[in-house]
User: Fold this.
Amino acid sequence: MKDFTYVLPKDAAEAARAAAAPNCALKGAGTDLVDRMKEGVTRPDTVVNLLTATDLRSPIREENGRIVMGGATTLAEVAESALIRKVAPGFADAAAEAATPQIRNRGTVAGNLCQRPRCWYFRNDTYACSKKGGETCYSIEGENKYHAIFENVTCNIVHPSNLAPILQVLGGTLHVVTANGTDVVASDVAVKDFWVRPEEDISRENILVAGQVVREVSFPIPQGMTGSSYVETREKASFDWALTSCAAALTLDGGKIASASVVLSSVAPTPLQLEAVEKWLVGKAPSDALFREAGTKATDGATPMRDNAYKITLTAVVVRRALSAAAARATGGGK
Amino acid sequence: MNADDPVIPVDPQDPAPRRRRNQQDGARGGKPFKFGQKGDVREVAVNVPPDEPPPWQFGDTHAVVGQRTPRVDAVAKVTGKARYAYDMNLPGMVWAAFVRCPHARAKVTAVDYAEALKIPGVLVAKDYGSKEIRYALQHFGIVAAETHAACLEAVRAVKATFEVLPHAARMDQALAPDAPRVHAERPNKTGDDFRPEAVAAFEKAAQGCDAVVSGIATTEVQTHMCLEPHGVTARFEAPDRATVWASTQATFGARGEVARVLKVPEANVTVIAHYMGGGFGSKFSLGVAGAAACTLSKELGRPVKLMLERRAEHAQGGNRPSSVQEMSLGVKKDGTLAAYKVSKTGTGGIGGGAGAANPMIYDFGEVAEADFEVATNAGAAAAMRAPRHPQGSFALETIMNLAAEAIGMDPLELRRKNDKHPIRARQYVEGAKRFGWDKRTPSGSGKGPIKKGMGVASSLWYALGGRGAQVLCRIRKDGSVEIRNGAQDIGVGTKTILAMVAAEELGIPLSRVTPFLGDTNDPIGPASGGSTTAPTIMPAARTAAFMAGRSLREIVAKAWNCGADDLALGGGKVLHLKDGSKSMTFEKACALMPGDEIAELGKRTGNYAAYEGQTGGVHFAEVEVDTEDGTISVTRYLALQDAGTILNPLTAESQVNGAIVQGVSYALFEERILDRQLGQQVNADMEMYKIAGPKDMPRAEVILTEVVNGANNVGVAGLGEGPSVPVAAAIAGAVHNALGFPVWSLPMTPDRVLAAIAAKEKGK
Assistant:
């Protein structure tokens, strides 16, 4: 690890100004960044520790029909929040499923959304992979058991964030601050517009650029008979990355699905909004058979590689399970 | 070991030859003693050597031994006060690290160390090791610096060019027709094919069978990946001495290696291993890191720390070889196993040492066996907790389950019929009752997506120890007691049982005894391999305490004007056996000693003719298989394990629990995944190399089957390896029962489970 300048900003504005420095890395809990620095994959000249920015620690609260929280809210705080558990249990589930108790006690919401992919070629500095500026995606010919089965063209990473799909399902927003010289301006980005596909820019996974910091995250409180869920499959019960994951929100009206939002993750470089499945669900009565069929439909267009076709099966499973859980919560009067 | 040699030698840990070593034959004229287990007590004649106490017999009771006793160093460990080799930071210490090649086969053609040497604090950057690279992350250079950070930056700054050669890192690559040779002098695949006469005998016997079942079991390479990596902190002390803090399973072996590397007398070398952060068979030698650190320390005249970094620990720290085991088993309707044919192929990387202990345990009738080794451009294998056995057990217990199904016999009954070992015979019955085996449902009969199943598998080991230890017992005038041996406690609680044995023999509370292990200035002790540490050291410890106690009795006898044999030690007192009115506290007795201390050296003598030469175990597992997402949850586990005399039930159970933890991990998760391109291990970390965590653990119960084996004056049996033999096999048996068919590949990850289910459905 090489020497770096360490910045302890007092608020998001100061953090954004510091983050404008060349070759700067933002650190939340550091559970991802420090690993990358030790591996030599990321070698920043400046590290900005966002944990000292007080407005990133704003509490989880209800505000104008939305749930709002600071970007540095921990996963444990989300998982244990009675408010979130009440209005959007799927969001609490997604936080509770992540990593280990130790990491959830430190890991942040914004950090979870912005963490870099876990691809073993990306994280090994002796592989000059295309994401690191090289010419090859080694997963194409190499070991691709955990890689993408959708949109796997240029770079076959899968999006690693648990919170990303559920926040997108809930119509969430990122409240970003941007340094422009000494000025700092605030702007909002819809979660669905936050992601960057490898074909757009292979070097990053979201739209944030130098001088930008996620100050807060929010989502509208679901209305009516709405249920939300987050479900994943993985190899280990303790501390593992999802093989496939799905977040869903269903709103029921008169025994029929009035609206559906379904986002698949861990199977493509970005979270995938399943618009065709959503449209197909609307107007139908929820049932196990319906959700089973939805699960199968969700696998349409999959392009598995040598070692990851099993993820197709697991995609159908998580979609069905997520929809069933969301429907049960909607009918149960839960959210 | 030659510092240029990147190969970590495989310890020949095969226990079989050790079985009868040192055993007393005949014991003519010996005294009869009662050895055995509940329901099977035998009289065995033993010649008790002079200076040794008589062996503990069946029915003996103990005051300290057998009590559930927390580790004497528990507080030091959980508070971080325990200092491991990695924790040693000495004044003036230098950090060292290897420079490594990312390719599995290459020639190092040029290396430029200039940039590395420019980094402030960097003292050394130079060639070290062979330029012929034979596995990925093999080292060819070394750097040393004032700080760890500077050291790692210097490694990055070294500019090397390689002539990259075609490699055969994976076994499939090494077996390809045009594969490059891993060792120039021989083909990649070597070994012993079937003997034609054995095959003929197998075929003839198979014809007389009612069913012949077949299958191919595969297991993957499991890396050691010790939490504390391989390495040392070494301090050369000019002109001719050295102290080395090593993460080692063999302090005395390491001492010899340090002496050879530094060309100093062994007497001038001290190796210290007060605490060990993981040793499962891969730390018998000083290792490449240790040898390099010693050499650098001598060159620089400063202490040097060199511990393998995590990726290198996977590549260079040793592993359990893979296996492909192709089996056919013929069985008769009554459960008689009559014909067995097995061909085994596996890779131990560039180091060799593959092979599976298959067959074992059961009487298979006519056996035809072929055994092949495939050399690959991958890190060398090392002995790993019951080498060859877990992979063999998985395969043969799986084919046993299939045979049971073919003849419609309960799999436990099939085992009982073909395994007459007296300890396991008892364990089958006790275990089945305790586990609720009668509630096991027929294979594949479960409804719904979550299927439950139960499995059983058996264990054997040879763990009675032998010669190779001396223990020093000192009684001080103030009544305190020291018990000393120079071997290591690799984490299993050896220090604690050492003190317990001395306290038992001297009739004093445990708190009065201070145990010392892990310093080669103390008397010789064994390497911790083959489950021999406790059974080798403890009899010598008891002898030392007996001799010291006898000296104390002699002092008191003089004061009381009686014979030492009239006196006994017990309850913290010296007691007169013939005159109940006479007794003296242990402290008062000690105060009578003419000098400052009593010091006695107890020696480990050979074993007596034991009750049984093998130790036994029977394990039961219960699983839930989610047939939708392919995950397996081990819900319950019961291990019945013979441990000889149980010195400390608490740490003995822990050791079995540890075997269960490791076995669950082996069965379900652990797998070295080698990139077919560069040949590197892609999951060489602690994140994608998946190790079972707390939520993956079953509700586990351990029943220690007490067997007074009489192999020596203590009769404790090693527990390191026996319990780790059958864990994956028992879990696989439960999965088989749940699904109705076996999953033939370890680890049983969701992709493999789903593939097995899909294949079965396709075959319908």
User: Anything to note?
Assistant: The first strand of chain A starts at residue 5 and ends at 7. Chain A touches chain B at residues 1-3, 40, 100, 118, 120-121, 123-124, 126-127, 138, 141-143, 145-146, 233-241, 243, 307-308, 310, 313-314, 317 (CB under 8 Å). The mean pLDDT of chain A is 97. The domain at 225-331 of chain A is CATH 3.30.390.50 (Enolase-like; domain 1).
